[in-house]
Amino acid sequence: MKGVDGIELAVLIILFAFVTVVGFAAARWRRAESLASLDEWGLGGRGFGTFVTWFLLGGDLYTAYTFIAVPAAMFATGAVSGFFAVPYTIIVYPIIFVFMPRLWSVSHRHGYVTPADFVEGRYGSRGLGLAVAVTGILATMPYIALQLVGIQAVLEVTGVGGSNNVIARDLPLFIAFAVLAAYTYSSGLRAPALIAFIKDTLIYLVIVVAVVYIAVKIGFGTMFDAAQKKMASTNPTTGKPTGVFIPPPSQYLAYASLALGSALALFMYPHSVTAVLASRGRNVIRRNAAILPAYSLVLGLLALLGFAAIAAGTKPIGLDGKPNPQLVVPQFFEDRFPSWFAGIAFAAIAIGALVPAAIMSIAAANLFTRNIFRAYFERQASPAREAAVSKVVSLIVKLGALIFVLSLDRQNAINFQLLGGIWILQTFPALVFGLYTRWFHRWALLAGWAAGMIYGTVLAYQQSSPATKHFGRPLDEVPFLHQLGYIALTAFALNVIVAAVLTYVLRTARVPDGPDRTTPDDYHADADDPRVQPIPELTER
Amino acid sequence: MADPERTGRRRTELPVGTQVAVAVLVLVPIVALLWVGSYAKAGPRLWGFPFFYWYQFAWVFLASACTWLGYQLIARARGQLERDREIDRRRDLSAPVTDPERRGEER
After folding, report:
1. Under an 8 A CB cutoff, do B74 and A286 touch?
2. Can you give the residue ranges of every domain in chain B?
3. Which of A57, A142, A234, A496 is the most buried (most CB within 10 A)?
4. Whole-prediction pTM
5. Cβ-Cβ contacts under 8 Å, A531 against chain B
């Protein structure tokens, strides 16, 4: 194998060091009197405007995994496994435009920090809140792990970590991780919010250069022709076409359901909710729903890098000598660009992994603190105590993710992320339906959640692919439709049916409902509205 | 949905016309992109991009425009609601006598 490129590595390290300084300095940004509360440490003071929120959400939602895995999927099997991310990240915004302002309002009126806080208050059920919190933490852990897979991919192409010694091999990853953990601990959400500016600037720079390069040196027509030829060719192991260039009618449902299921799931993730609740007002969210698709454009162009790599004949070979499509984007930059620019591209991907990893660990820590620690162990926890617990838990969550990366096969990590989507979507009825109606019964929602979780997990476990026996793909034949569809959406349908039928039964049987701590007015409260101040009698302590 | 404190029109709800218009603006991109059959074809090409690919890129901009328009409609309707509410509040302060001429000025 080749050696380490000095210039490339130097650029990567300099940019990484710069980001580290910014991360620690962020504690002074929009300085609060004290960071010792979840509102300050975990939500950055709840005061981010349109501009900061745009960078924060963009940095949060478009992760290194997206930049690595979507092009990898395009490179390996084409449109249905990769390009669905474009319609997915377009339709997600009209969806959040509708319901997110309501969640923002009710959360600000009652001082809710996590989605599970709202569910607990709305349904008067700690059990339902716990279910939402556990699902959130469960789905987030492998997602953080995947950010590390992104960093690993960059390091592997740079040639770092090729040693056979376990400690030496993963040392760069450990260092990156320790640094991330340290500034998240000290600065909270302000760190990723500030670093997101650097990340997004680098990503935009890299993608503009890459697109110009493709247009001039390869040509879009040539690129698509090469991709079409590869997808139509026969895969020697399966005897079927390698991939899909344009979906045939039998794959329409798969494509649409992957887009819709992922879109519905995205804002159920605790880290997305955290970034939204950190904004200053309802209109900040609405304006962002209109301007965030700018990132979808970048995502689409990055996806096409997978096709560009096909046309350019990129060979993504790992340090172990085996082909690994996850390396295709870094390898493309390594082969085709001068060292210093490849270094910038690698830094963009690596920093792109740090921002979401920080926000995810904060969000998971908040869930633990509010909905497990405070709900079950210390009902009277003070804000300072909550922040202290969250800070420690954010370290534990990251450690868990690190163990995930080191102990599991990378192929498994990717499949666990697909499973994460299946899980997190099962919290949708309790959260989003709850923003509009109290008709659903708390126990019916809990039963629907359980049904969706079990059904989705079992079905995903049964999927085999040439590479793995279990969790091989996120698709399965949809009952009654006899076409492939995203398992998350099928499980979600089952979830809703169970919740609706059981609600009817429980209401007919007059089983007592929990108290609703919210009022209809709460769902419209806005910034600079005096009602937005948390009202002590309404905020349960 | 009777609100005991405020009989009559709920001041927090948007006008029906605005609600319908926003609902349409929200649904159009979702329906367009989930209707895969309408765009899963190779031609016509644009700058080398097959139709399937450039059409979805085009929706990045169209969806953004739809959402922005929806935001503008809501902001305008909310502004109107705020002004109405302000008038209500002043009228309540000067109760029980209401002065139709002064209210006319404020509108």
Report:
1. yes
2. 16-96
3. A57
4. 0.82
5. none
